[in-house]
Amino acid sequence: MEQVSLIALDLDGTLLDDRKEVPPENIRALEEAQRQGILVAISSGRMIPRILPVEETLGLDCIILAYNGGKVVGPKSEGRPLISERPLPADIAELFIRFSQDGDYLLNFYRDDVLYAEDSPNRRRFMDIYSGRTGAEYHIEDLTGRIGQEPTKLILLAEPEERDRLHDHFVAELGGRAYITKSDPEYLEIMAPGVSKGTALEALGEHYGFGLPNVLAVGDAENDNPMLEAAGIGVVVANGTEASKAVADHITEKTNNQGAVAEAVRRFALR
User: What is the CATH number of domain 6-85+196-268?
Assistant: First the structure.
């Protein structure tokens, strides 16, 4: 097995337990990994301002792989250099703005690390779900004013069955013009073509000088699959989706609530 140079960790459902806290054994294992010179990357669909509090909880200096790979920045000790950023084309963003307006869907529009959305009673319900999970703050405005801009990422939110239907609809309609994936049960995530947690790992490898076989990636959901497939060691936590377990090299015995990340780190990364 290759020596691990980088550990890439999904947050929700993976590093975090169901209360959105980090189990202490995860922190201890990652502290040991950093002492051994292994880089740690937090790899999330979240925006950067909502990842930094988790980094603070860990007490570690991490690489931040945000927006499902749409934007990657280096650790604080290096001054948070921008390693890669690939925004969504404006014409695709406009299509989703108009679709969300016509159907009263909540559309999360991320630009310059700020979250914009339109308000309505139906949208407010999904805002509460999203804010409750991530702590994100919404800036309410008419998204018509954002037409012509290139967001870092979009999320369209709907009930899980409807989300699945919209996923199939837009994948068929847009083909390779956008990367569309599912994460939490209500989230349809839309990024630029070629953007994923997997391509972000490639950018990190080029920047820091290691190969993908030297990466341990841990995740739980379909938006993690490109990262799990790209990494030399792709591990899915016991509570992960069947679709993610199908592409994993290994599945932990423990769930996110039981410190699955610590299990993976101790088994595959620590010397």
Answer: 3.40.50.1000
